[in-house]
Specification:
By secondary structure, the chain is mainly α. The protein has 8 helices and no strands. The two termini are 31 Å apart.
Length: 230
């Protein structure tokens, strides 16, 4: 199989769209963030899906960034790094939730309760060290990163501007939902974010198809122009 730029771009588009779909689905099937859930099949299923969603989202966002890297500028770079690092943190925490928290539920139930309750606004009894800052740090990366990335996408005018606007709206809704809605009702704010990722993935796929459908002469001319601009 020959690996080409277009193949990687289409793969990133699919990854972004699938990540967005998973992100929406898991909000409706997520079990309660309590130690009793740790032994359930639904807990393992949801958090394995969450881990996969985080990895796919990172791949998708990277593809979105690379497609318009010149147009996004410094603002887009900062937004990409922050948004992308959020998904790295998410995948690491999902790994803990799936493979570590259930193991300590019997021997150290309070630690397990504090771990699974980190994002459920449950005050920790155990000293979690730097992990205690994870919700605040993750929220900042998620909200600010998505806002900056969305603004840069709109300014770049490469992909659908509506998708960039939806990304901004989704990011802005997150702290509002957190302030006004009790957990787990605040999970509803993840739905527009999932839709934004799906839309961005579709836009990236459509853009790649449009690029591939251009006559060879136009592609060559575009390549020459880009080389001259560099």
């Amino acid at each position: 199989m020959r690996v080409t730029t277009s193949t990687l771009t289409r793969t990133a588009a699919i990854a972004a769209a699938v990540a967005g779909l998973i992100y929406i689905v898991i909000q409706f099937i997520h079990p309660a963030d309590v130690v009793a859930s740790l032994a359930s099949q639904s807990w393992m299923t949801v958090h394995i899906l969450s881990f996969g969603e985080a990895v796919l989202a990172l791949l998708g966002v990277t593809g979105l960034y690379l497609r318009q890297v010149r147009q996004l500028g410094v603002l887009g770079l900062i937004g990409y790094l922050m948004f992308g690092f959020f998904f790295i943190l998410q995948s690491a925490f999902n790994f803990v939730e799936v493979f570590i928290a259930p193991l300590i539920a019997t021997s150290a139930p309070q630690l397990a309760v504090d771990l699974v309750g980190l994002f459920g606004r449950v005050p920790a009894v155990t000293d979690l060290g730097p992990l205690a800052a994870l919700p605040l740090a993750g929220s900042a990366l998620y909200v600010i990163g998505a806002l900056l990335f969305g603004i840069a996408i709109i300014r770049a005018r490469v992909l659908a501007r509506g998708a960039g606007i939806l990304l901004i709206v989704a990011a802005a809704l997150t702290p509002v939902a957190g302030a006004l809605l009790a957990h787990p009702l605040d999970r509803a704010a993840a739905i527009p974010m999932g839709l934004a990722l799906i839309w961005l993935g579709y836009s990236l796929w459509s853009d790649q198809r449009k690029t591939n459908s251009l006559p060879l002469a136009v592609k060559d001319e575009s390549t020459v122009d880009q080389a001259a601009a560099a």
